[in-house]
Amino acid sequence: MRILHVSDCYLPRLGGIEVQVADLVRAQRGAGHTVEVVTATPGEPLPGVHRVVANLPFDLPVHPRGTTHLARLMTSRRPDVVHVHTGAVSPFAWMGVRAAVRAGVPVVATVHSMWDPVTRGVYRALQAAFEWRRWGLVLTAVSEAAARPIRAVAGPRVPVQVVSNGLDVTSWRPAAGTAPGDSPEAAVHVVAVGRLAPRKQPVRLLKLLEAARQRVPGPIAMRATIVGDGPARGRMERYLKAQRMDWVSLPGRYSRDQIKELLASADVFVAPAPRESFGLAALEARAAGVPVVARAQSGVADFVRPGKEGLLGRTFDELVASVARLARDGDLRRSIAEHNRETEPVKCSWPAVLEGFARCYEMARG
């Protein structure tokens, strides 16, 4: 099959959507498909990547005449399906949707984010202006939590399927002889990984860790490592200094290999963001055998069940209680870690993801 992916952002930019789309392209090519990408992100030439770039401030990934360029490209490349990737509001990606509709090419659009009330209002306004529900789209979301608000806006006319983000599950398995969830050190090691951006509420994560540590008995020590970088880092450093939380480390951005090494020493992984559409870092931790604590209303709930792969909470206090419980209860921590090591999150593996998108492509073509 000839597949053309359209994404505002792509390599060399590094982010959740960029990395996931690049991995999907690699997996589809490995399965024998002819796969190309068109993006508004500037960068060095890459095989099969078309860059539609305008000279805009801050290298914004959008083009004022993007629809025309994309329609011309689709007419010349003649893909069997166009697969568009969007965040909350992605102008270039939706230009790709419009261009595919004009070119008469079946189109699947994956929404990688959670639609909040403002975003839902925007898409209702766009429906009133352009009637996009009549375009014959097939939409996908990365989790049930992300799909629910999309379905509320799309209505019964537009199918909204759930296709998980993909992960090379086997590459995240702990090495033989290691046992995440049973730290050889005296301190229980709590880990979090993600961009340190205000919308992720990283300072609230520090308050969560602080409150959890206060609930852990004196003989049990607790330390934490928060991997990532972003605009909120300075504020986090000031908070740690003011609260004298020298047991929390902010090492910055890590490579995938460094994260794997870190997870090998982790006892608990925390993903507290309430509007997490999927939670790829949490999936990596779960695949590595680490018990996960996350919001029950986030996309993490698709692959973490309470008491099985980790613990879920709907409120800040419930998350605090979950982290403290795992820190105190070594038997529970070890049983969850053993379950995570012995069972794979099958629906998040690349074969399952490729099969899910293949069904969506056939639905769009039909």
UniProtKB/TrEMBL annotation:
Entry-linked Pfam families: Glyco_transf_4, Glycos_transf_1
The species this protein was found in: Microbispora corallina
Keywords: Glycosyltransferase, Transferase
Lineage, opening ranks: Bacteria, Bacillati, Actinomycetota, Actinomycetes, Streptosporangiales
MF (Gene Ontology): transferase activity
Domain Glycosyltransferase subfamily 4-like N-terminal span(s) in chain numbering: 15-169
Glycosyltransferase in keyword set: yes
Protein name (Swiss-Prot/TrEMBL): Glycosyl transferase
Record-annotated Glycosyl transferase family domain positions: 189-342
Domain of life: Bacteria
